Amino acid sequence: MAVATLRSVLRCEILLPLFETCRLRDLLCFSSSVDAAAAVCGTASPDPHFMVEYLVNSCGFSPSEAAKFSKPLAHLRSTEKPDAVVNFMRSQGFDGAGIRKVISLRPIYLCCNVEKNLAPKFQFLRDLGLSESDIVDAILKNNAILRHDLHRSFVPKLEVWESLLGSRELVFKHLKKTGWFFFSSVEKTLHPNLKFLRDECGIPEERLSLVLRGRPQLMSQKPESLRALVARVEELGMPRQSRMFVRILYVLHTVSKERFEAKVELMRSFGWSESEFSSAARKAPTFLAMSLDMVRRKMEFFINVVGYDPSFIASQPNLLLFSLRRRVIPRFRVTEMLKSKGLCTRQRKLAGILFLSDTKFMEKFVLLHKENVPELLDILRVAGTCKGNDTFHLASEDKGLADDLICDDEVASMEFERAVALGRSGVT
């Protein structure tokens, strides 16, 4: 028995190396035949890492970035198309950072056909009057321009937005600032939203156009989201027929439900009732978009320093729109100093003084007393609202309130505030 077992082991020891040798020979023969077939058929794959090296050497990506962005390009067998795309973009004014941004957003752009896909779009934009830098800015904000069909997608959307905003110049102005609004579906989004706001909400197109100039994204959201936004406005008690309806719609589009509820809780902590909050929002909706910290500091100043009752502020919510640093505190200090000198005998509430234009405030409260109280000019200089001896640092008279809003309102649009200021010219 033991002898038989020994013979079996010896036989395995002898045959195993022979088997391994034959197996290795077969594998080598198979590998050689495959290599030969591949050479004949011309299907040999290049170095799988060649696009990683290309993105590093030709575009300036880091190795880790290049490894990530090369994955959608694994099918490429040469750098012919990437070279053409990169060289074309450089010739159109893109610097290295711009090219990397476009590639990182959509690496497959490196597979575009320059002559058929890219060059016609750049030429079309030039024909519309855009400069080289304008085109670069627009594409960096709206890389979708490179992938959408020029005549089936880009041109129809351009025509719709031109009619909504009132001019092609405004369309391009927004394209250079932000882009995701532009490529919303005309059939599924833009037309249904326009029909809803115009026909169901009764908002005239000229009034709607005024708001869209400041925030075109209002129109490009999903139709169900727009209806929900309208419902939020109506919860504040604002009828659709009111001219303020569309302005509250504009503001609430920038304010999430969470931020809105946080603002409600903040004002409740100061003693506002729900009806007072809704009333204030209807009168001065811009305060809804201001930061909680800004509103808190303004409320504390008016209550603790000026001595206003919270309910009075609720009835005059425009007080919250003024800049503490540039308007409220300087004017409060001026009037307090005049009172201390016995020069402000006429009883005028600070609220009324805040609404005076800068020129009128300067004439009535500063220049009239500058000989006896030269410190008044110092107060305004410290606040940064006065330069030299007696010149206010303002670009124009009719921008007084809008300037203050820009300081404190995180999301207010300059263009929109100028437009709505036309309807409240008596305020400033």
From TrEMBL:
InterPro entries: MTERF (IPR003690), MTERF_sf (IPR038538). It holds the Pfam family mTERF. GO terms for biological process: DNA-templated transcription termination. SMART domains: Mterf. Keywords: Transcription, Transcription regulation, Transcription termination, Transit peptide. The keyword Transcription regulation applies. Belongs to the mTERF family. PANTHER family: CGI-12 PROTEIN-RELATED, OS04G0637500 PROTEIN. This is mTERF family protein. The lineage of its organism: Eukaryota, Viridiplantae, Streptophyta, Embryophyta, Tracheophyta.
